[in-house]
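Q: My labmate handed me this sequence with no annotations at all. I'd like to see what the chain might look like in three dimensions before we decide whether it's worth expressing. Could you predict it?
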Amino acid sequence: MWFELVDRNGEPLGPADKLHGPLGDVADFRRALKDSRSDSADLDGVEASLLKVYKDRKTYISRIALATNDPIARFGKQMETALIVEVPKVWFQLVDGGTRRPLEDAVCLPLANLRVEKLREAAKAKFSELFPKTVKASDLKVYESWEEYNKRTGGIPLLTDSSIENFGKSRETALIVEVPKVWFQLVDGGTRRAVTVYKSMQVYKDQVEGGLLSADSIVNEHGKTSRSALILEGPKGQVDRIRRHYITDCNQEAHYCESKWWKLSVDSGYALSKLGRIISTETQLDIYKYAKSIGAGFLGTAYELLLHNAVHGAFAKSEPIVLKIPQRSEFDRIEICVQHVISSGESEQSCYDCLATLDKNTYWYPAYSFFPFIDAVTTCKAISSTSGHSDTILAYIQVTIQKHKKFKPDRLKRLNEEIDKTPQLKGLRRVFVVVGPDSDIGNTFTLRDAPDQDAFLSCFDRDQLEPQHQEEQHPPPPSEE
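A: Here is what I predict for the chain of 481 residues:
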């Protein structure tokens, strides 16, 4: 019995294939197909009952699917009249509501019911470790596309009971699932009691977009997460648009009412990225350490920007930034100390154009927040302490605080094609380097689908930026007494 697997766009997922054996009805066919493709990535996570079966291409176009108990023996006799089997996977991109940057690469998941409510539940189950504990599936906002999400007037999220039948059919048309920014309870500085929004104050829901709340709003969403806080604007119209107050423990009621538990800190990945090199490495390090201590939602952005900032200062100090590599690699560390640090590119294509003209001895990272797969490209030294051997390599760097990522050969191929346009870089060995904060990254991180020879796992230890560490590396000269 001939069949052809297709995605929700009707595009083939491979050549037509054949199933053998007596198959009575659609249910039998689904089970046999699933069993025969147990290792197929296309059917990974897809229950047999979710597969939609059509007797031929014509009925597929008309969207007339066979029922579960329909006889099937007379169909699929020849390749030209193969059964069409649609795999009902939905593509979506998880985005941080504060930074408006992706939290993960776009993924696809099978859904039995193509509605917003079911997508929220699936996204929450898939990425629960990325969410603040108090964020529920119903808190997630779903947008039909990047274009809708990025509208200047503010995109309109889909309603809970909306169908997503026509959305998320491919990576390029992925739905956007936003993990929301939330706030803690505002208190009166004198009485230490929860307050409503006084007419003499202006309170903003979001520091970047400035969504002004109405004068009679009641601030009653405290304690969901310590990721963000309300921005309070006094009568003189002055407001700190960059920093926010944190509390030490969002689960302790007293911490909302006593100012000794409050700390003022930059808390927005968006703000940090805009500040760029204006922030000193010491300040950036302090922000990262505080973000880590409270489990802030912008921790990943703070860690990435800390690396960029540290590399920028390395050449002036003649102190390379060291990325430690697990023992099983041929090298034990990578050292970055380049003359130029550049951030450029306003779109995905313009970022690729920058790579095509990249100079040697340059550390480049994309100014475009949504550039896929990598966070920096640089020439650097790969060094083995045991053999003394070192190589100058070109590193494709992906910075992450997560425990797993997926290696994507097609993205690597595109990067190589652009780098090949630069004669001085064309002959350099290229290595994909995952950089994380865990010194035991070799045992705690999984890079799925990566060939070992092309990928390094490494640790950027922020301790090397501490003053005491630098003093140990460069002790004072001996006294002449």
